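User: Quick one: structure for sequence A, then sequence B.

Assistant: Sequence A:
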Amino acid sequence: MHRLVFALLLVVTACGTGEQKKSPVVISLLGKAYYEPSRSAKVQARLDSNLRVAKANWEADPSEENYIWYGRRLGYLSRYQEAVDVLTEGIQKFPKSAKLYRHRGHRYISMRLFDRAIDDLEQAHQLAAGFPLEIEPDGIPNAINTPLSTLQFNIRYHLALAYYLKGDFAKAEQAYIECLKTCDNDDLMVACVDWMYMTYRRQGKTELAQSIVGNVHEGMKIIENDSYYKRCLMYQGKLSPDSVLHVADADPEQRDLSLATQGYGVGNWYLYNGDSAKAKAIFEEVVAGKHFGAFGFIAAEAELYRWRE
């Protein structure tokens, strides 16, 4: 997949006004510019405060950990290039840091630079090899305020995703198999199984897909990954595609985010079941939303991009 040129990433001055215009934080695979999203005053204040603290900590002590948090906080604001710049500087100071490569790889995925993401995440995988599972702290706490994922899971999960988004399903399959070995709770299991199922189906490995989704069952304790859980139940025939696609949520923000995640799985289900027109319509509905950083959104975008090619 060719790499898009990220134009207009520097702030430009409006002609004749002296005002500054916002620059896009990412250019999609389809050529659309996305800007830092508008948020409620409460959410914006929290994100800005967290960034100020992270920056102050980094300025006082530019340690590996403080480089990571400074980069992460920028990423949560969708300021992807700035996040990459900080993490790159951190890598220059700490070249053996699997964590820095892992987080920069994640942000390269956000920027649709899949080859760069793969390079970083392969490097992170090598650097983390042989070490015991290490819980990775959450930047956005979950409902029980307890981190559920590990560094090793996140490296392999994001690596597999980068291969998947690039359309290299064979390599994605191998990375997901490695990722599955690090799944030590229900949330990680359903996230990995969901993408493994889709990876197998895209390769025509239907029996393997049905076998792997058998690891998901009703009554699992899901804290974070409810959308992936519902997709897996859909694959098993326990939920209809329509019920998964149309999210009944009074909160428009949550509904749009759920569509970005659940919608891709439903569209993909129609695609490998022979209804490409329905799949394309759903992918277009997903990318009409605003959660351009969600993995389902990027995946739908990648499908539409391949159709154009």
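Sequence B:
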Amino acid sequence: MKKVLMTAMTNSISEVMETMFFMPVEIGPETILNNSGIDLNTALACRLSFTGDICGNIDVISPETLVTELASNFLGESKEDLTWEQQFGTLSEMLNMVCGNALKNVKCESPYKLGLPEKITGSDLDGSAECTLIETMDSNMAMLLSM
């Protein structure tokens, strides 16, 4: 079931990134988070829990420069004028959209419930966990699914 959900998540992130953030992405290879090339000490990260037929968390980890670009595209603000709250809010909203869109495409008997996105830090992440890279023109982010 994890493979079905991960496929739904990767399809969803491509759709959401292109339509809502005007940023085409490629789904990169699966790798170990510590080998992703993302500095976990400075990256912005967000976790969203979900319950239903399948329960788990999805984490998104992104370099701050990429989050700034996402927020600028999404909010229509210049990068220089963005606050930290706007950047984290954009990352949270992106994760919420991706997870909600993916779960609606996974057949279930009981409805899914999404938690509230929460800020996490590099110390909250398992660096040895397998993640999927989301490649943009300038940078990569990582998506980690745990069930």
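The two ends are 10 Å apart (CA to CA). The first helix runs from residue 2 to 20.

User: Thanks, that's what I needed.
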